[in-house]
Design goal:
The protein has nine helices and no strands. The protein has 149 residues and is mainly alpha-helical. 34% of the residues are buried. One of its GO terms (biological process) is RNA processing.
């Protein structure tokens, strides 16, 4: 079975633009041949920035709707959107075999790389569904975070 199909089953989302999912699974530095300012060299960083913002929006929005204070929402964001929490989600979903790491890592997915990949997958879902919040909320990666509440 292809990586795309397995990943789509794991995150419960069929991608219209598979290039987004492909980008989400490439760690920064995985393509050492590309120039430093090349998108390939940056790997999934651009999607991770988007995914981080979407995850925080999700956590704050859920918290406010449930009557949490802004302080409580901030505490939840700090804990649940942390690299440690996101790496646990990467491990729970067994994403490591699908992540293209830089050659120096020899296939090992570090906690930072795992967390960044989770953020990148969320970012990829966000862009693939035309920034549709409801579709993102149905992604299994986001659902894992939603257990906080």
């Amino acid at each position: 079975m292809r990586v795309q199909q397995v990943m789509e089953r794991i995150i419960q989302r069929k991608f219209r633009n598979p290039k987004l999912l492909e980008e989400a699974l490439i760690a920064a530095g995985a393509d050492e041949e590309a120039p430093m300012n090349n998108k390939k060299r940056q790997g999934n960083k651009r999607l991770a920035l988007i995914g981080d913002a979407v995850l925080r929006l999700t956590l704050v929005d859920d918290g406010i709707l449930l009557g949490k204070t802004t302080g409580q929402c901030e505490t939840i964001c700090t804990a649940e959107a942390s690299n440690a929490s996101l790496f646990k989600i990467e491990e729970q979903h067994h994403l490591a075999p699908f992540i293209q790491t830089c050659p120096a890592q020899k296939g090992h997915v570090s906690p930072i790389t795992g967390a960044t990949t989770v953020e990148a997958v969320v970012g990829a879902v966000w862009l693939d569904c035309d920034r549709n919040y409801a579709h993102v909320m149905r992604s299994s990666v986001v659902l894992a975070l939603a257990k906080v509440f």
